[in-house]
Design a protein that fits this description.
Helices cover 0% and strands 23% of the residues. It is an all-beta fold and 299 residues long.
């Protein structure tokens, strides 16, 4: 049988993560007969082809240690369960007795010195996010869906299409969560890029707003899957611009209204007390408009 902590990774390829030249050692609790085990019989999570190798594992002189050398495009990590499929293989002790009747199976040790080569703990690369698309005709997704990217300094365990929406929030200066908007999302574009898409009716803007990414709950690790994120990752939006569109009366009715609308609350003819005039602007503004700022010019 396999010894306790009998499956160990070795970073003999001297790169981050499982790469060609790295090895996995199976240690048995007694010398074996050294039976030949085809490379295809080494399973990762019950599947073949994840070790990237075409070389059969090799026994050491004592026939207690079996070494698998990884090839290119390997996909194996600490904690994965490896199984030696004994189909067509007669594995016994060194004296030819004690036939191993059950496929030896054990997780790759996650305890040092077992490693495929750890990377670095995930962290942002320090660049200011850029809102896209950006220009004078759009502000915060009014005419086109806007997004910005959180860029990480090194490759992580995330891949294109991974969704992190549930672990991303935006908070204002009082540490209150504010809406990213209906239809907002957080989706990985590659192992270093988390794209935040702004939804409809978002309230975030340039200023005292901060993105909070719960990287621990989201399972963020380094590329080798051996180092966990240290905690919450934050990104200030203080210097992020969402567009330079200048507010104006919405004469084009892009808001669904006709710019300026009058409404009679009473039954009398003409403008009267309590009647209202509503002015629709074509983009959000940063402040309320005082009544003294409004003038009326007769037609």
């Amino acid at each position: 049988a396999l010894a306790s902590a009998g499956v160990v990774a070795k970073n003999t390829g001297n790169a981050v993560g499982a790469n060609a030249g790295d090895t996995i050692e199976f240690t048995f609790d007694t010398p074996t007969n050294g039976a030949t085990i085809p490379f295809a019989n080494i399973l990762v999570g019950g599947a073949t082809g994840k070790l990237g190798t075409t070389l059969n594992p090799q026994w050491d002189l004592t026939k207690t240690k079996l070494t698998v050398t990884l090839g290119v495009s390997s996909a194996v990590y600490l904690g994965d369960t490896l199984t030696i499929d004994l189909t067509g293989v007669t594995l016994t002790n060194i004296g030819g007795e004690g036939l191993v009747g059950t496929n030896p199976s054990q997780a790759i040790s996650s305890t040092s010195p077992s490693t495929f080569g750890a990377g670095v703990i995930p962290a942002l690369n320090g660049t200011t996010p850029v809102v896209t698309p950006y220009g004078s005709n759009d502000y915060r997704g009014q005419t086109a869906t806007q997004y910005f990217d959180l860029k990480f300094a090194n490759a992580t365990n995330k891949v294109l299409g991974n969704i992190s929406t549930g672990n991303v929030t935006v908070k204002d200066g009082t540490n209150t969560v504010v809406a990213l908007g209906t239809g907002s999302s957080a989706e990985w574009q590659d192992s270093q890029t988390l794209r935040i898409t702004i939804g409809v009716n978002s309230v975030i803007e340039k200023g005292n707003f901060t993105v909070h990414y719960d990287a621990v709950t989201d399972g963020l690790k380094d590329f080798s899957h051996e180092l966990n994120a240290a905690g919450e990752i934050t990104q200030s939006l203080a210097n992020v611009s969402f567009g330079t569109k200048v507010p104006g009366i919405d004469a084009a009715a892009s808001t669904g209204h006709t710019g300026i609308e009058a409404f009679a609350t009473g039954s009398s003819v003409g403008a009267d007390e309590d009647d209202t005039i509503t002015i629709y602007l074509d983009t959000p503004t940063d402040q309320l408009i005082d009544i003294s700022d409004i003038t009326v010019q007769k037609a």
